[in-house]
Design a protein that fits this description.
Blueprint lengths: L10 H19 L18 H8 L6 H4 L3 H17 L16 H14 L6 H21 L25 H9 L2 H6 L6 H14 L4 H4 L5 E2 L2 E2 L15 E2 L2 E2 L1 H4 L1 H16 L13 H11 L22 H10 L3 H19 L15 H20 L10 H8 L1 E4 L6 E5 L3 E6 L6 E6 L14 E2 L9 E7 L1 H4 L3 E8 L2 E7 L5 E5 L8 E2 L15 E6 L2 E6 L8 E21 L7 E8 L11 E4 L20 E2 L11 E19 L6 E7 L6 E6 L12 E2 L3 E2 L1
Antiparallel strand pairs: 1-2, 3-4, 5-6, 6-7, 7-8, 9-14, 10-11, 11-12, 12-13, 15-16, 15-24, 17-21, 17-22, 18-20, 18-21, 19-21, 22-23, 24-25
């Protein structure tokens, strides 16, 4: 239906509509003019859901979208016709039926078709209806078995799994493949079978026998005690890709948001399980404890999906708009306030950046469209949800939790900061984030925090929590023993943290700081200032996306035939990779351009020669096995002895944290001429202020 004349129902919804409109520029760049459709590649055709929302609401602005409305409509309808006919369930051969992950994009596609139902021809409508019902029939026929077309993806029946790789997501996929049929074809003779299967998979998504077996509550007429799956730790934490994965914990509400929109759009009553998910509120309690100032979770372990703002919206929108959760509404508003600055940052117009897969972009567009629709639904069903204020949110989210030795996380959220002791192998660190700042210290993945590396073996873990209700205040103490000694972090109710160590490794005290130019995001104004007793320095942000860096290194003029970059500390995830290695004497030509490059190792297709070929689209990268190696190197033979006094190293995201530039006359004996980084400020002690946002 068309939106009301006064436009979007609330400011957050208005933001979503503006972001969708601008994102259409990216969507149209994907359009295949020869085929006349948005392509199947990376499920790009799912952009039709965002298009459908824009085409059925007032306020379309072709100047912002980069395409006129009639052209967008023609592209959208042609794509829906094509993919409705090419689905395996309608006799096609291109896509569909496959649970992982065709059915996720099928859900978006079917909803887009319903929004544009009046514009579709009879054959396309029939195909859409057939996809809807026959997918449910296919999934139901599988019973508890794996989908044979989905490779190794498995829910492990209704037993599930929780160590390292939760089956919450997989069970959610089974459920979401059934939801469109229950919403749009509730009178189908097979609907009762579909309903039983949907309920079973949905109720088991967040299954935990220790909680479920003692729970007599009926959900959709079935006792929670009948659940059989174990998909989470008994501390209400979810793992994926080998460690705590907040975004996979949020899958519970991401899937619910997709499913709910079909029921709400069809006018079919919501299954009770969508609003009464067993263990859902305790999982949400964990998410509150991890929430950043941007409304999305902090990620001290696996970095998969970190800072994917476009994909973080729908879980919050579902909880806020469907469940009426005022705390989720606050978090959603904080994330929405950052969406447009995030979208403007390079690469402009996109709404998933910094991590993830290509399919996340059309997926984020679809989920942003659903989130907008959820706001419209709420506006006509009780009006907007009044979000709590910041102080109330911070007081409610505050707390401490020891999630156990297996998860390896001891966490504390005070009103002023978040901090945690992480003992999970491969992610070992003492993390601290003042103001819950999503963009201050780098916490995710293999990035070190206070400890110099994340792969140090933990021999003992000691975790203590202090709780306000019992002890009068919230605090934690985490002590880890390593082969070389002990290190510990105490977190205080004021937000301060105290790090102590017997001296376990060289270069302790590491804190990596984000520094981006993203006006509108707190702290990311294009530079960071550091103040000590010796003075203040300001470090400008690089213009390139996060991770990439260009180093201009100068030194006293030397005469040499060989020059090399010798690594000292690699990027913690990917080692070393250079787009270009240039050598010059003053403003002279690049001497390396005519030289011969060699390296300690190279990945296939990323050999050393690509670092000095003059092509900005090619690069050298170390081999996968050498990514952890500190002393990887790239050398250039200039052919004869030359004079030079500077080098430019243009790094890919795998930018060396520390390295030396060395020269040689024979390629055997090397002399260091420069080191990176060159400190902008040295201090002998006292307090260091970090951009007015943290102090040490």
């Amino acid at each position: 239906r068309a939106a009301a004349a006064d436009g979007p129902p609330d400011p957050v919804a208005a933001t979503y509509l503006r972001v969708l409109l601008r994102h259409t520029r990216w969507a149209e760049q994907q359009f295949d003019t020869k085929a006349g459709i948005y392509p199947a590649r990376d499920f790009t055709f799912a952009v039709v859901l965002g298009n459908a929302v824009l085409l059925t609401r007032d306020g379309y602005d072709p100047a912002v979208a980069g395409v006129d409305r009639d052209t967008l409509k023609a592209h959208t309808l042609a794509t829906i016709r094509h993919f409705a006919a090419s689905n395996l369930l309608t006799g096609g051969t291109e896509w569909g039926r496959k649970l992982f992950f065709d059915t996720t994009f099928q859900s978006y596609f079917l909803l887009a078709a319903r929004l544009l139902w009046a514009e579709l021809d009879a054959a396309t409508r029939a195909n859409v209806e057939r996809i809807t019902t026959e997918q449910a029939a296919y999934t139901t026929a599988l019973g508890e078995n794996d989908d044979p077309t989905s490779g190794s993806w498995t829910p492990n029946g209704l037993t599930g799994g929780y160590v390292g790789d939760t089956k919450l997501e997989e069970m959610g996929v089974y459920a979401q493949s059934l939801a469109p049929a229950l919403a749009w074809a509730p009178a189908d003779p097979r609907a009762n079978q579909w309903r039983d299967a949907f309920g079973t998979w949905s109720r088991n998504e967040a299954g935990l026998p220790a909680a479920d077996l003692a729970n007599p509550r009926l959900v959709d007429g079935r006792p929670v005690s009948a659940n059989t799956a174990t998909n989470l730790y008994d501390t209400f934490l979810v793992e994926n890709h080998g460690s705590f994965g907040p975004h996979y914990q949020e899958e519970l509400w991401r899937t619910s948001g997709r499913n709910a929109m079909h029921f709400l759009a069809a006018g079919t009553p919501l299954p009770e399980v969508l609003t009464a998910q067993p263990n859902g509120e305790l999982l949400w309690r964990t998410m509150l404890l991890m929430t950043s100032d941007a409304g999305e979770p902090l990620m001290p372990m696996v970095a998969d999906r970190e800072h994917l703002y476009g994909r973080d919206v729908i879980p919050l929108a579902f909880r806020a708009q469907v469940l009426g959760d005022r705390y989720a509404a606050y978090a959603e508003a904080q994330l929405a306030a950052r969406l447009e600055p995030y979208q403007a940052y390079a690469p402009a117009d996109r709404i998933t950046k910094f991590s993830g897969e290509p399919k996340y972009e059309p997926e984020a567009r679809a989920e942003l469209a659903i989130s907008y629709l959820l706001h419209e639904w709420r506006a006509s069903h009780g009006g907007p949800v009044a979000a709590v204020g910041k102080d109330e949110f911070d007081a409610h989210a505050a707390g401490v939790a020891d999630f156990g030795t297996g998860p390896g996380l001891l966490a504390h959220r005070s009103p002023a900061a978040w901090a945690g002791t992480v003992s999970k192998p491969g992610f070992v660190k003492f993390a601290w984030q003042p103001r819950h700042d999503d963009w201050l210290f780098v916490l995710g993945g293999a990035n070190p925090a206070l400890l110099p590396a994340t792969n140090i073996a933990v021999r003992e873990r000691h975790a203590t929590t202090y709780e306000k209700v019992r002890d009068g205040f919230d605090a934690t103490v985490g002590v880890l023993r390593f082969d070389t000694g002990y290190a510990a972090l105490a977190t205080l109710p004021t937000g301060a943290a105290v790090y102590a160590s017997t001296g376990v490794a060289e270069s302790e005290g590491v804190l990596n700081v984000y520094n981006l130019a993203t006006p509108g995001v707190p702290g990311l104004d294009g530079d960071r200032s550091y103040t000590a007793a010796e003075g203040t320095v300001t470090v400008k942000a690089q213009a390139a996306p996060s991770g990439a860096r260009t180093d201009d290194v100068t030194f006293a003029r030397v005469t040499a035939r060989y020059v090399r970059m010798l690594g000292v500390q690699p990027d913690p995830q990917y080692g070393y990779s250079l787009w270009a290695f240039e050598v010059r004497d003053g403003d002279g030509p690049d001497l390396a351009r005519t030289g011969t490059a060699t390296a300690s190792s190279a990945a296939a297709g990323k050999e050393a020669k690509y670092a000095n070929d003059g092509d900005p689209a090619t690069r050298w990268a170390v081999s996968t096995s050498d990514r952890p190696r500190a002393d990887s190197w790239l050398a250039v033979d200039l052919g004869t002895a030359r004079d030079f006094d500077r080098a430019r190293l243009s790094w890919e995201a795998a930018a060396g944290r520390k390295y030396r530039l060395e020269t040689s006359s024979d390629g055997v004996t090397w002399t260091a001429v420069a080191t990176y980084p060159v400190p902008a400020l040295r201090s002998t002690g006292g307090r260091l202020d970090i951009d007015g946002r943290a102090g040490i």
